[in-house]
């Protein structure tokens, strides 16, 4: 929406008459595009900024899940996501990752680096870096990058456009692991999967009765298969139909993480409860949530004030 700038004027009369500058919005083609995607102009927003938000609507989609809610709220307030930090894996002289099965989780109050993560629930944690409170090691992005670079398995670099003293809690929650539901494999051939860095023990086949024995060398019998977890390659001995399908998890590195000053929690979120409640130790030694702390009380009071909450019948 273009801006039409008013002006001040003065007329020589017995009594002074003056006017103040005003800004009036003029509807143009950008507003028509905004109507098509349901994104209206912020009052006084110029075309350049409005264009960025219109572009953002097609890149960072809004929706009911975490990412979608963050995208929608941020865009409505003109707080667009921006690249913040890139986390990568360190490699040995052979070019293979030093970590057997690396994974990084960006959570609400900490970042967890796994040197060896498996889908069966076993995991080796390299380090956890808390990011929620001012005295935490990774509260600011530059401190977080320093702590990550101290790892033997991971490295981190800040985006050139981000302020080093940006608060780390603005990072959008994310995991480095992605799930591939179905990918085509060929019989009697080496199949190069779309993704490298396959998570160990994550490969499964639709034809489970055909592929049941994993070997470390070249498959030599029916039912055998081999996986190169670093390069993302699968070799099978044979396929009766000439083709098949597999699913797997892959570690997506380098891992690029955005920042946006929007935080979304649920009451059931363990990280949310950890930060906003005092802890009480039972006789058994178990820690449970007690009364809300100062920050938790403020949040709960605000929620009760803004929403209709009824207790009992």
Structure notes:
Helices cover 20% and strands 31% of the residues. The protein is of the alpha+beta class. Among the domains are: 2-59, no CATH class; 177-251, no CATH class; 265-313, no CATH class. The strands form seven sheets. It has a four-stranded antiparallel beta sheet with strand order 8-7-6-10, covered by helices on one side. A four-stranded mixed beta sheet has the order 12-16-15-14, with no helix packed on it. It is globular. Mean pLDDT is 86; it is low at 1-10.
CA-CA gap between termini? 51 Å
Rounded mean pLDDT score:
86
> What structural category arises from helix and sheet content?
alpha+beta
The amount of beta strand, in percent, is 25-35%
Low-confidence stretches: 1-10
CA radius of gyration is: 27 Å
* Number of E-state strands: 20
Can you tell me the overall shape?
Answer: globular
Helix-strand sequence: EEEEHHHEEEEHEEEEEEEEEEHEEH
Number of helices: 6
TL;DR?
This protein is α+β, with helices and mostly antiparallel strands and 313 residues long. The protein contains 6 helices and 20 strands. Among the domains are: 58 residues, no CATH class; 75 residues, no CATH class; 49 residues, no CATH class.
